[in-house]
Amino acid sequence: MVSGEQTPTQYIKHHLQNWTVGEGFWAVNVDTIFWSVLLGVLFLWSFRRVAKKSSAGVPGKWQCFVEMVVEFVDNSVKESFHGKDKLIAPLALTIFVWIFLMNLMDLIPVDWLPTAAMYTGYWLGFVNDPHDVYFKVVPTTDLNTTFALSLSVFALIIIYSIKYKGIKGFAKEMTFTPFNHWALVPVNFVLESITLLAKPASLALRLFGNLYAGELIFILIAMMGLFQLPAHFIWAAFHIIVITLQAFIFMMLTIVYLSMASSEH
Amino acid sequence: MDINATIIGQTIAFAVFVWFCMKFVWPPIIKAIEERQKKIADGLSAGERAQKDLEKAQEDIAEQLKEAKQQAAEIIEQAKKRGAKIVEDETQRGHEEREKIVASGHEEVEAERHRAREELRKQVAVLAVTGAQKIIEREIDENAHRDIVEKLVAEL
């Protein structure tokens, strides 16, 4: 709903603005950090509860669910990543569940939390005008989140490449593939660098793009008046797939990239 | 939408979450899952084994039952045969005994009769001789006519 004297443009812009503290590069999107950390802690706390009590006996309902998720991730890892690694499976689980939860925030009607935040901020006296409070609740519609994830994965790709192939092996891969000839080393290097850099970029932008677009459509639907109810329902139902799929794709590609980094060609 | 220091915070948060998950969440859960999988697999194989044992036992039982029935039938058959044989034998023996008894009775009777006749003959002979002697005493010499007398006796 378009509240008060806001124009549609203002409304959309307002919804896409982070709650930022600080200036320039050192500014921090408080809402992004808040929600992502909250959801991450929720994930770890709820799974840790199962982990503490876990036994081979008859599992409870929540334990069953958690084990289902864990086993799903474990199977995905085992299918793609050959070899033993203590990090990859928990990494994949964290990525999958955390991204899923952050994406899930998209299903909360777009006005609820921002409006609540607006009036809370106003009543608490932080701002004079409720519209000065910005509150974006989906952390994955913030490039900072998606790039933080993808660059961490990128760092792991390089670490794994060096760990499994050695610096020489990694350098050789960067310069002697795909054309195994010394004269083509510069060409190879350019090609391989693009391939390497495209991985984190595509990971981050795919997730961001999907969720940002989805969020934007939710905002547009929210301006439709009464018809927003069925429209919202349809788009939300469809979006459930996007949410899950994007979390899964991010996890799967992470596994595949690390698997590629750690195996000889 | 700009890239700012949030990315650092998010990276740190991500690293901490992954570390926590790797340290405290993943290992116990996956251990429990694997243990349970093993337990279930063991249970299933035990169940299968038991099922096989049961089937085998049932087969054995059926086999034994069949054998027992056959044996019982054989035994009954034998018993019947033997009973029939015994009856037959006894009947046979009875017959024989009777024949024997009857035969010996006949023999005895025959012997008795024979003896009596012999006796009678002897007495008749003696009587005849005595009679003849008495008749002929006056005129016939006993020694001269003995062969006639004996011939007479033999004809009796």
UniProtKB/TrEMBL annotation, chain A:
Pfam families: ATP-synt_A. It is a multi-pass membrane protein. It is found in: Cell membrane; Membrane. The chain crosses the membrane at residues 25-45, 87-105, 143-162, 207-227, 233-258. The keyword Glycoprotein does not apply. CDD domains: ATP-synt_Fo_a_6. SUPFAM superfamilies: F1F0 ATP synthase subunit A (SSF81336). The keyword Ion transport applies. PROSITE patterns: ATPASE_A. Coiled coil: none annotated. Keywords: ATP synthesis, Cell membrane, CF(0), Hydrogen ion transport, Ion transport, Membrane, Transmembrane, Transmembrane helix, Transport. Belongs to the ATPase A chain family. NCBIfam families: ATP_synt_6_or_A, PRK05815.1-1. PANTHER family: ATP SYNTHASE SUBUNIT A, CHLOROPLASTIC. Key component of the proton channel; it plays a direct role in the translocation of protons across the membrane. This is ATP synthase subunit a. It comes from Idiomarina baltica OS145. The lineage of its organism: Bacteria, Pseudomonadati, Pseudomonadota, Gammaproteobacteria, Alteromonadales. The gene is atpB.
From TrEMBL, chain B:
The keyword Ubl conjugation does not apply. Keywords: ATP synthesis, Cell membrane, CF(0), Coiled coil, Hydrogen ion transport, Hydrolase, Ion transport, Membrane, Transmembrane, Transmembrane helix, Transport. It comes from the Bacteria. Gene3D superfamilies: 6.10.250.1580. This is ATP synthase subunit b. Residues 47-82 form a coiled coil. Its main location: membrane. The chain crosses the membrane at residues 6-26. GO terms for molecular function: hydrolase activity; proton-transporting ATP synthase activity, rotational mechanism; proton-transporting ATPase activity, rotational mechanism. PANTHER family: ATP SYNTHASE SUBUNIT B (PTHR33445:SF1), ATP SYNTHASE SUBUNIT B', CHLOROPLASTIC (PTHR33445). The keyword Hydrolase applies. Component of the F(0) channel, it forms part of the peripheral stalk, linking F(1) to F(0). The b'-subunit is a diverged and duplicated form of b found in plants and photosynthetic bacteria. F(1)F(0) ATP synthase produces ATP from ADP in the presence of a proton or sodium gradient. F-type ATPases consist of two structural domains, F(1) containing the extramembraneous catalytic core and F(0) containing the membrane proton channel, linked together by a central stalk and a peripheral stalk. During catalysis, ATP synthesis in the catalytic domain of F(1) is coupled via a rotary mechanism of the central stalk subunits to proton translocation. GO terms for cellular component: endomembrane system; plasma membrane; proton-transporting ATP synthase complex.
